[in-house]
Every structure is written in C-alpha cells, then in structure tokens.
Amino acid sequence: MNETKPLRVGVLVARGRALENWELMILDRILATPRLELAAVFTHPHPFGENKASKLLSWSARLEARALARQPAYSPKYFNSHRHFIDCYDIDAGTSRAGSSITAAFLSRLKLDLVIRMTPKGIPDDANAALPFGEWAFNFCDQRTAGADWFGYADVLAHAPTTDLVLYAKCGGKPDRLEIARAAFNIKPSAARLSAFVRERSVTLLMRELARLADTRRFSPAAIADSANGHAPSFGELLRYGCIVAGSVSAIALKSIKAKLHADSAVWTLYTGRGQIDDFDPREAIEIPPSDNSIKADPFLFQHEGKCYLFYEAYARGDRKAHIAVGCFDGDTLQPVGVALERPYHLSYPFVFRDGDQIFMIPETHQARRLEIWRCRQFPLQWELHATAFEGQSPADSILTRHEGKWWLFTNLSDFHAYEDHCSELYLFEVDGPALTGIKPHKRNPVVIGSTDARGAGRIFEQQGRLLRPSQRNSHGVYGYGLNIMEIETLTQEDYRERCIRTITPVFKAGLHGCHHFDATGGRYIVDARL
C-alpha cells in the first residue's frame, strides 16, 4: 500500500431521505481533508431493515425534536449532492445503475479502503471482506427507523450519568463489532437533544480517527464493542419518559426565569487543606464559605515573596459577569486583597504562572472570542495585555505547561455547528511560550473527546517524572459534577495518552452538588465545590 495516497472512503446513506446535518458535515469534512478522498457515495434502498417503531414514538419523537432539538440547517462548503453522488448502488439487489454487482470484486475495483455506514443496514458481508479497514458505523446509527430515532431514551429513563458514543467497525465479513473509539457525554434533559448533541460530536470523533488512519495506515481495534443496540421504547416507557422530560423542562424554565430576573446564580464554595495532587483528602478540608456579595470559584494558588495568594473568579449573587479577584492566606483564613482584573466580558479560571522573573495570567475569556495572556506589572493587582490568540474562537480553561524543554498549551475549544460545548473536546498545541507567536496544533486534536474527562480543572503538575492533569467529570446532568486526576502517559507531537487515576465526587462533604477544580502549591491545596 502506498502511504502517500489519500485514504479512499465510501459513504453509505439512506436512499430517498434528505441528509441530516451530521451526515452533511462528515461528507463536507472528508472533501476538505487532503489525506482523505470521497471515492463513492452509496444509497441503501432499504436502510432500516427490520427496525420498527410505534406510531406514538414516531409522532412524539418528531414533536420533541422540533421543540427541544431544533437546529439551523447545515450549508455544505464542498459537498454537492448532484456532483458527489457518483452512482446509486442498489445494495439489496446487488447491482448499481451501471450494472455492476456489489461484490468484493466490485469494491476492490473501486479501491475503497473503508465504508462509513450511516444506516442500520450495511453492505453485504462478502463485499465487506474486500475493504482493508472494514465498514465503520456509530452505535446511534443502529437505533433508528424512517420515522423515529430512539438513541438516548434508555439512558434518560435509567437516569444514567452519561451516554456513550461508540465508533465501531465490522471487518472481513465477520459479525463481530470492533471498537475504534468511545466517548461519554453528559446526559441531557431529553433524548432528542441528547441525540442531536451526540451526533454533532460524532463528526469530530470520526474525523480524528480517519486522520489517524490516513497518517499511520495502522488499524487494529481489539475491544469488542457492546453488541446491544437498545430497543425502541414501549408504550409504558414512553409515558414514564414523558414525565421525566416534563419535569426537566419545567426545572430549566424556572431556572431561566430566575436568571432573567437576576434572582439566581450558581453558588460555589472553597475548601483548603494540606496535601498534594496525589494524596489530598477533601474530607479533612476547611471551608472558605461564600457570601451573597463574594462567591468564589476556579481558584488558583500562587506563592510570591513567602506568601500564598489565591486568584479566583469572583461575583455576587445574581451577577451575569464575573471578574478576577485575589486574596492572601493568613493561616487558613483568606484575607481579600482586591480586584486583579475586570473586563466588559466574563472572566474566570485565572491560571497564574511564572516564566523566569515574569508573572503571567491566562484568564478564561471565551466571551471575547479569543485567548488572552496578561503580564503582571505590579503584583498582584496591576496587569497588562501581553498576547492574544485564537481570534474568533472561544477557548476555555487554558493552561500552559513546560515539559522536557517544550511549551504546551492545553485548551477546551468547541468544534460545532448548532451546539457549542466547552466540556467535550481537549485541544493541545505546541507553542513558543507566553508570547504565543508560534502555535503548532497536535496531530491528534482533539486529543481527548468526552465530557467526563476533556475539560480542564486546574494547572498541570509534574511530580517525580509523572504529569498529572486535573479534569472535570461532567455527568448526572450537572456541569462540574466531579473532579478527575488524569495521568498523562504520552505527550509528543504525534501522540497523546492519559488515564484516570482518581475521581473525586461531591460526597466528601454534606450538601454539595459538584466539585470541579483543583490547585496546590507549597503543601497547600484548594478545591471548589457547588452548593
């Protein structure tokens, strides 16, 4: 195989149906990627096979999608149905309009490397055997009919903490499903919204794995993906599901009304104690409680001239915008110092770090649609803008760290059409330091996909040769439900791997509903928790 040639991809869609946003996005991205070639588009005349759904499910699913999962139509930049539907292959009948049989020999003549299936039914097993990398599909592709989609119903009914997106392959004509990649996402108030959100995230996951295969030409999925497709909900399950969704929608509506009246905002509290990232015990922590006029979140510790300072997101109850404040510890008591940074837009996550004799801060400024680095003129209250990057994008919770002589920028961006989300994709860049004049994207971006571990939750620590990254565990329908400690096992320009070595949930103190940030310095640690 000539590795300089693009990966030749075929795509299987349902005949006679308008392409959905996620399908158009995939076709568009394939055409826009030099290492990929859209070599064939197949249409299946009977794409849903034996899958059946009740009229009640079909009706309610359409109503729910219009009410809770409406999204603007995606306008392709590259894909054109008239130009790129190169033939209509009648897979069930075994022939195309050109008179060729859909056999292994036929697919071999097309020189396809793989087929992406977007329908429950796929290509014949004997034809699959001709594909070097098999037939790829998502688990949600199997849970649908012409009139209904039941992906996510089971998870909402079960009050599951997350739902799984699985990209799998069938290879060599065998029935086994081999897992290529998996990501978990926070549960949504309704299956329709959950399904639409996951479909949009699936585009990013698929394109990352196609790029990996195009670069390496190595494909060895070993794990067998879950074989259960889930069943269409019964009449009784639909009634119970309706009650769950009605309750969720009512709670969201009430929260929205309170927000508009400036009568409600998230209330966080801080806990501090003695310990490090690999041994701290939040059960023994001392609370630094909030007040109505001083709610604190996203705390970062910083040692300066023998004192321990705390930079944090600060706001009052009912505020819609926060600023960066700073305090100084006197024992375990935090003494306020003042406002470190305030802008016309929301600020949070004030990552403060030292480079040589200079001190910098990277606050979250995603509302300004860029990343900002501020340099300290006079510690701790005077700062000047030093550098900007990612203009027009919305990076969140950004961290700079130096490892083995290289600077790395970790940030949460959102690759989206309808559903911007900063909790599901971690991007990595090699940079030249705080000046950000040279930014090189990692080859496997986003290096982490999924709401249970992608979003940053504090600075990265290096201890005895180990790199440890705090991350948020967004689950149970709650933003900032828990906190992970991830160990970075591989950090190079070509590869990135990490594993979760510890998870902290809000049960460490009574009355908490979340905990989503960690920092430590000089033997002191601090976490925030949601009341």
Defining traits:
single chain, 531 residues, alpha+beta, 6-stranded mixed β-sheet, 5-stranded antiparallel β-sheet, 8 helices, 29 strands, globular
Question: Which secondary structure elements does this structure contain, and how are they paired or packed?
Answer:
Layout: E1 7-14, H1 21-32, E2 36-44, H2 55-68, H3 81-84, E3 89-90, E4 95-96, H4 104-110, E5 114-117, H5 125-128, E6 135-138, H6 153-157, E7 162-170, E8 178-186, H7 191-216, H8 235-260, E9 268-274, E10 286-288, E11 295-304, E12 307-315, E13 323-330, E14 333-341, E15 348-355, E16 358-364, E17 371-378, E18 382-389, E19 396-403, E20 406-412, E21 425-431, E22 439-441, E23 448-449, E24 461-463, E25 466-475, E26 478-491, E27 496-504, E28 514-521, E29 524-530
Parallel strand pairs: 1-2, 1-5, 5-6
Antiparallel strand pairs: 3-4, 6-7, 7-8, 9-10, 9-29, 11-12, 12-13, 13-14, 15-16, 16-17, 17-18, 19-20, 20-21, 21-22, 21-23, 24-25, 25-26, 26-27, 28-29
